[in-house]
């Protein structure tokens, strides 16, 4: 597979640990949800590292004035969780980006055909072009869901350079589709797995992320 897009798998002990917890079939739903929250937190932390716009300023400490650097409050930051499973990453992501706006996008695969349909779209009509958008999509499998999400977001005026994806398990078919259309997109994932089975599940993956996070 030739990949032009940039896929980052951060070498971080907490990411490895929570991925192992999430993968384990014996992990109960309540702990699975915690693992997803932690993965959402640490992968979002890595994803915003070179992406949040900064602003130089001066601050007065109790003792003296000094140079300071803030996150520029004039550049909007948005988080788009792909329901349902993306909701499980939201607490962690929102924890490090507390002023971000949250725009929910509800997508579901037909379990037989794997066709994706949209049942909830709370995206605005347009984003300001400089808006930084973090998409939370834990499973990149066939790529049908993330391609629909990217199309909806990009058509609202944001270049793919300003979009980053946080995923937990990414599979080659989804990465291939993304790279063909969005070569400058950056993806932060806990692991790249070997492939998908004939039912569209990632192998070894972690099973159905939505069902496991919500106990259904
Ligand atoms: O790359 P794809 O083949 O499109 O698969 C990925 C999608 O599959 C799951 O959603 P699902 O349809 O199971 O909905 P859920 O999150 O509500 O469980 C997962 O949460 C992703 O959104
Ligand atoms: O393995 C997979 C693939 C798609 N969606 C999931 O929740 N798990
Ligand atoms: Mg599901």
UniProtKB/TrEMBL annotation:
Annotated EC: 2.4.2.9
Spans traversing the lipid bilayer: none
GO biological process: UMP salvage; uracil salvage
SUPFAM superfamilies: PRTase-like
Keywords: Allosteric enzyme, Glycosyltransferase, GTP-binding, Nucleotide-binding, Transferase
Cofactor(s) the protein requires to work: Mg(2+)
GO cellular component terms given for this protein: cytoplasm
MF terms (GO), sorted A to Z: GTP binding; uracil phosphoribosyltransferase activity
Record-annotated Phosphoribosyltransferase domain positions: 9-216
Catalytic activity: UMP + diphosphate = 5-phospho-alpha-D-ribose 1-diphosphate + uracil
InterPro entries per UniProt: PRTase-like, PRTase_dom, UPRT, UPRTase/APRTase
UniProt keyword Transferase present: yes
Pathway listed: Pyrimidine metabolism; UMP biosynthesis via salvage pathway; UMP from uracil: step 1/1
NCBIfam families xref list: PRK00129.1, upp
Record's function text: Catalyzes the conversion of uracil and 5-phospho-alpha-D-ribose 1-diphosphate (PRPP) to UMP and diphosphate.
Similarity remark: Belongs to the UPRTase family.
Protein name: Uracil phosphoribosyltransferase
Lineage, broadest ranks: Bacteria, Bacillati, Cyanobacteriota, Cyanophyceae, Pleurocapsales
């Amino acid at each position: 597979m030739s990949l032009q897009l940039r896929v980052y798998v951060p070498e971080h002990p907490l990411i490895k640990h929570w991925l192992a917890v999430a993968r384990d079939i014996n992990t109960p739903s309540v702990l699975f949800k915690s693992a997803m929250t932690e993965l959402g937190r640490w992968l979002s932390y890595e994803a915003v590292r070179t992406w949040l716009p900064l602003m130089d300023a001066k601050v007065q400490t109790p003792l003296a004035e000094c140079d300071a650097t803030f996150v520029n409050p004039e550049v909007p930051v948005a988080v788009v969780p792909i329901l349902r499973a993306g909701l499980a990453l939201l607490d962690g992501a929102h924890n490090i980006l507390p002023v971000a706006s949250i725009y929910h996008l509800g997508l579901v695969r037909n379990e037989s055909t794997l066709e994706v349909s949209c049942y909830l779209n709370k995206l605005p009509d347009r984003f300001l072009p400089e808006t930084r958008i973090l998409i939370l999509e834990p499973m990149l499998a066939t790529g049908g869901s993330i391609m629909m999400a990217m199309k909806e977001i990009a058509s609202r005026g944001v270049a793919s350079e300003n979009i980053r994806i946080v995923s937990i398990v990414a599979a080659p078919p989804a990465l291939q589709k993304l790279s063909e259309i969005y070569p400058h997109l950056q993806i932060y994932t806990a692991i790249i797995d070997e492939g998908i089975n004939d039912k569209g599940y990632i192998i070894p993956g972690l099973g159905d992320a939505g069902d496991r996070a919500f106990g259904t």
